[in-house]
Amino acid sequence: MLEEMGYQFEVMTASIDEKAIRFEDPKELTLALARAKAAALKPQIPESAILITSDQVVVWEGEIREKPENEKEVKEFLEGYNAYPAETVTAVVVTNTATGKQAEGVDIAKVHFLSFSEKDINEIIKEGGVFHLAGGFNVDGEIWKVHIKKIEGTRDSVIGLPKDLTERLIHEVAE
pLDDT digit string (tens) for 80-111? Predict the structure, then answer.
């Protein structure tokens, strides 16, 4: 996403225990995780930079869904999306490492799916990438595209970094 937005960047991984940070409210949870990532990474950046951290969960019928842990959970998630849409809740925290100024926000999008057959679910599991995705789904790739009925919100928000929100936050901390 940042490349599409015209930014040069370096990817860093925050060493935090995400399971130790828990909130029932998905907005609070994703913001707390994105803040924790920023706090962990900021000391590792000696030069002046704009640090962008984010986190995402999927909410389905009021239940927070993170990355599926096994095939059974993938099946449960996808079969659930046959009945009700999935909502992505994405928090973005942007920090100016020189000034310490920080801005944050949350973006929500909703994905309505067409039904997944047993064959489709098995094919998705076989590909394996689903285990690295919040809520166990994606909006990219042929198998996913044929199952998307509509997206309320933006595709980039569903993918995990809402461009408009991120751009606004960058400008807030750069001033």
Answer: 999 999 999 999 999 999 999 999 999 999 99
Helix (H, G, I), strand (E, B) or coil at 18: helix
Which residues are marked as active site? Answer: 55
CA nearest neighbour of 67 among 131, 122, 111, 2: 131
Report the distance separating Cα 42 and Cα 95, nearest Å: 8
In whole angstroms, give the CA distance from residue 5 to residue 68: 30
Of 28, 78, 86, nearest to 61 (Cα)? 86
Euclidean distance between CA atoms 49 and 164, whole angstroms: 20
Choices 3.40.30.10, 3.30.1490.110, 3.90.950.10, 3.20.20.140: CATH for 18-174: 3.90.950.10
Note if the pTM is more than 0.85: yes
Please classify residue 45 by burial: count the beta carbons closer than 10 Å to its beta carbon, then call 0-12 exposed, 13-18 middle and 19+ buried.
middle
